[in-house]
Amino acid sequence: ILKKIVTIHDLRFKAIQHHNKAEYIRLDHQVKNSIKYSDRIICVSKQTKSDLIKFYNADYSKIKVIYHGADHIPEIKKNSSIVKFDKIRKKYKIPKNFLLTVGYTMKHKNIPSVVKCLKKVIDSGRKIKLVIIGPKGDDENNLFKIIHRLNLENEVIRIPYVNSTYLPYFYFNSKLFIYPSLYEGFGLPILEAMRSGAAVIGSKAGSIPEIGGDAMSYFDPNNDEEIAYKIINLIDSKEKIDKMKIEGYLRAKNFKWDQTAKSTIDFIQT
């Protein structure tokens, strides 16, 4: 008899407010069937496992947490980065001093909060811009309304897509990588940024603290004042930034795809 194994990445539609009723029903039905008919369940974080048990009363003995890896991102060497990023900078018109966030512009990604914080950071006398990389989502129009309302058209650089080989250089050269999501089942960009040598701050929501550990700084994603304070406090201190970069890089080294594969095979064979 063949074993049926399913991987659950996140239960965002259950954990936070969901606006699309049809999608909610579809996802709820899929998860219920996945639990009912599977022999084993892989969750990508303890948070997802906890949510699965909380919302669906899933049998915890069938569930194993297996983290994703981060070593698909190449390590960046400082000297090569300067040469490479000079070309990228010209292509996308990127300034030398910039904050970075990466992800679909979906409502739960909470990217407008970073734009609002950028305004506070600039008003405090710091000269810095914001680069937003990621495909357009259901919050794209709202994002641009906020950018326009705050007169930040010249301070925000919106890039819907970059070649995956370029992305590590954006991470490496950013002043800070900011991840303001309201919920994540894993949060891969956190580890990608850390492995690339970025200093990372993010929300204390969902699995983010679980994945980031002590290597990043956290904020309440609904508190723009706190986010802005964290940004200012860090960009004013090269010592703090450098320390976070080292801690993040070491943290990301714990997440390896070969270990993900080995744990998956072992789980299948038990």
Structural summary, described in words:
- The protein is of the alpha/beta class and 270 residues long.
- Helices cover 48% and strands 13% of the residues.
- The chain has 12 helices and 9 strands.
- It has helices at residues 12-15, 21-37, 46-56, 78-92, 111-123, 140-149, 167-173, 188-195, 208-212, 224-235, 238-252, 257-269; strands at residues 5-8, 40-43, 63-65, 98-102, 129-133, 156-159, 176-179, 200-203, 217-219.
- The strands form 2 sheets. Strands 6-5-4-7-8-9 form a 6-stranded parallel beta sheet, sandwiched between helices. A 3-stranded parallel beta sheet has the order 1-2-3, sandwiched between helices.
- The radius of gyration is 19 Å and the shape is globular.
Please write the string of helix (H) and strand (E) elements. EHHEHEHEHEHEHEHEHEHHH
Overall shape: it is globular
Task: Give average pLDDT, whole number.
Answer: 92
How many helices? 12
Which short descriptors sum up this protein?
alpha/beta; 270 residues; 9 strands; 48% helix; six-stranded parallel beta sheet; three-stranded parallel beta sheet
